Predict the structure.
Amino acid sequence: MESSFLLEKLQGNFPAKIVEIPDAHNLLTILVDAEDIIDVLRFLKSDPELQFIHLTDITAVHFPHLEKEYAVVYHAHSLIHNIRIRVKVFLFGPNPEIPTATVVWKGANWMERETYDFFGVNFIGHPDLRRILNVDDMEVFPMRKEYPLEDPNRVDKKDLYFGR
Amino acid sequence: MSDFISKITSNQPIFDDNDPQDELITLNIGPTHPATHGVFQNVVQIDGERIVSGVSTIGYIHRAFEKIAEHRPFYQITPLTDRLNYCSAPINNMGWHMTVEKLLKIEIPKRVQYMRIIVMELARIADHIICNGILGVDTGAFSGFLYVMQEREFIYEIFEEICGARLTTNIGRIGGFERDFNAVAFDKIREFLKRYPPVLKEFEEMFVRNRIFIERTSGVAAVSAEEALDYSWSGPILRATGVDYDVRVQNPYCSYEEFDFEVPVGTTGDVYDRFMVRNEEMWQSLRIIEQALEKIEKEPKGVFHAEVPDFYLPPKEQVYTNMEALIYHFKIVMGEVDTPKAEVYHSVEGANGELGFYLIHDGGRSPYRLHFRRPSFVNYQMFAPMSAGMLISDAIINMSSLNVIAGELDA
């Protein structure tokens, strides 16, 4: 299956809701709104022509410089047609919210818990949204860019000093 | 008294509802329990020997690799990947190198690709040796484990010959290897191909038709293909359910498409099938290594890295004498090389399943975001739900057949 066919099919089913993001490595990347995400994922999984039965990964990215600060990224894989897709949803901070994908794939459970743990993305409807790798009484979401790994006064690792 | 005896003889419960024996017992398996083979905890509620419900707690060796990776140049992230699945560190290393090479669009010479395949398949064998050996130990057969451990030791000797390290190998560089395989390394790989098959044969004969082993594993923790896919399983345990998904075949990397090998699949997805799939994968890995050695013979000798001076460190002795080498050395070590802004997802077939690297790069010195798709983490989430209704002893061997490696679980 060609990724152009996949994109056309998605855009035909969700008119004006799917935006393609160009990707340098030929992995079809689409941008979806948070309210449509479950419909799109469910369509990807259950459509007999597509059959994205394998959820590869869910994670998030923090872009503090953007208006919508958080991106939740889904990778799914259609094992039958051997094509992968990346679905992105951008969310407003500081308390991003998105419906849970556990209603589509059960395997989303821990992936979403991990994403919540590190980015504070609230997956609405998740059966058990707790921290998973960090301690329960932690108060921050450590993968957000405002939490430095090292002493923020260190200058030897700043791009600024390397002509960038 | 006669009432009591008649109850026992007619298989009636001898306790009534008000007896305290009906209460469930809470049992902690882990965090440091010999059965978990790593640092993670399961709190289970048991009714006699049977598990009623369980909760998995993980994160005891979480080391924040994803955060650390945002502050490191690419070549310094390789040692972090060592510590994911430390039983087969070379696969993680190679997966990371290939991710960066995909980002930088570096073409790798064929000979280097075959060398990588040899290293990765050796690592796969080493990992499966651990898993199947330990599965034997957990079912009560200790000696098989010792037979194959010796061969794992020999694989580590080969790694030592190639890169100087044994467990956390940090093997290879972005663009190839740090040095060519020497003659001793090639000899040892050939020796391994000769000495391992009889040992593996002996090992598999000890288990495959062993009545005790079959009764302990057959039908235990059987998972259907639909359920396994729903839980995003990958790797040998998914193949044991009958789904022939192998990243080496579906999305070939390192010229795997040129190799002739089979993807073993099971039928019922129980512990016995998982054992058999891993066992057969070791035979297939041997076949792949054999073919790779043949193919290397036909390639030009002495090629062990791609010509990418921007990313591949020059030989150290040149750095002190040659101006150009010094400049490249400085640029690479200080992260001064321009890199494209792009997103890459690359996955390799790790010993436990699909090991993915999702890299977002903004052109800086270190990744903007790096996410590891760790097969153990994804596979293990089904453990607690599937344990409900299982005997404790079955849950233990189920856990060892999932091959959960704590380092890969927690990252």
Remarks:
- Chain B touches chain A through 47 residues (CB under 8 Å).
- Chain B has two domains: 2-57, 65-410.
